[in-house]
Design a protein that fits this description.
The chain is of the alpha+beta class and 204 residues long. The protein folds into two domains: 2-41; 51-77 and 103-203, Zincin-like. It has helices at residues 2-6, 10-42, 54-66, 87-100, 117-122, 125-144, 152-163, 169-179, 186-203; strands at residues 46-50, 74-81, 103-105, 112-115. A four-stranded mixed sheet has the order 1-2-4-3. A hairpin with a 6-residue loop joins strand 3 and strand 4. Helix 3 runs parallel beside helix 6, helix 6 (125-144) packs across helix 7 and helix 7 packs parallel to helix 9 (186-203).
C-alpha cells in the first residue's frame, strides 16, 4: 500500500533515500562521539603533577623485573584525575588517602604508587628508595596472594624482608625512626630488621 502511494510522490522517495544515506554516513561518527563522551565521563586516568626521576623509574623497573611483576609499576607524585564528570569526587578521595598515608598503593589499581608532593620533596635518595621498594613489596604480596591481605604487621614484615635485596636494613630502620612513629607495632618491625642486619653481617 505504501509503495503504491509512494509512486506518485517521487520527491518523497528521494527524500527518504537521501535521509537513509545520511544516517549511514553520520551514524558511525555519532557513535564514536558517544563512546568518547562516555570515556570522558567515566575516565579514571591519573596524572602526576611532578615527573618521576629517571633514577627512580630505573629502580622501580629493576625491582619489578626481579620480582617477576607483569604489570608495569608506575609512581605518581601529587596525583590528580584526568578531567571528567567524576574527577572532583575522585580527586577528593585521593587527596584524603594521601593526607592519611603520604605514600600509598592505589586501592583502585595496585600497579600505581601514589606519593604526596611534600613528602617526595622531603625524602633523600635512600629514604625515597625505601619508600618505593616497600610499596613494591606490598604490591608483590598483594598480587602473589591474589588480593588476600593478612594481619597488618605480618604484611609489613613480609614487605620489609622482600626488599632487603634492594635497600639496606639500616636505611629502613632510620626511615621508621623518622616517619614511622604512628605505624602500629613499629618497634616489632625495627627489631626484626635489626635481626636481619645481624644475620647479614654474620653471613659476610
Amino acid at each position: 500500500m505504501w509503495f503504491k502511494n509512494a509512486r506518485g510522490h517521487p520527491k518523497l522517495i528521494y527524500f527518504l533515500i537521501i535521509s537513509a544515506c545520511l544516517n549511514l554516513v553520520l551514524l558511525p561518527p555519532a557513535l564514536w562521539n558517544m563512546r568518547n563522551l562516555k570515556e570522558s565521563l567515566m575516565s579514571d586516568k591519573i596524572i602526576a603533577s611532578i615527573d618521576t626521576s629517571a633514577e627512580d623509574e630505573e629502580f622501580i623497573r629493576k625491582i619489578s623485573e626481579d620480582l617477576g611483576l607483569k604489570s608495569k609499576i608506575t609512581m605518581f607524585i601529587d596525583p590528580y584525575y584526568e578531567h571528567s564528570f567524576f574527577s572532583p569526587y575522585l580527586d577528593y578521595d585521593i587527596k584524603k588517602l594521601l593526607s592519611e598515608h603520604p605514600i600509598a598503593v592505589d586501592p583502585k589499581d595496585p600497579s600505581r604508587i601514589l606519593m604526596e608532593k611534600s613528602i617526595y620533596g622531603e625524602l633523600n635518595d635512600s629514604e625515597r628508595k625505601v619508600a618505593i621498594a616497600h610499596s613494591i613489596g606490598h604490591i608483590y604480596i598483594f598480587i602473589r596472594d591474589n588480593g588476600m591481605v593478612g594481619p597488618r604487621q605480618d604484611f609489613e614484615l613480609q614487605a620489609n624482608r622482600i626488599i632487603l635485596k634492594y635497600v639496606n636494613p639500616n636505611d629502613i630502620i632510620n626511615f621508621y625512626h623518622k616517619y614511622g612513629s604512628h605505624t602500629p607495632g613499629v618497634q616489632t618491625l625495627i627489631d626484626d630488621l635489626e635481626r636481619q642486619t645481624l644475620v647479614r653481617e654474620q653471613g659476610q
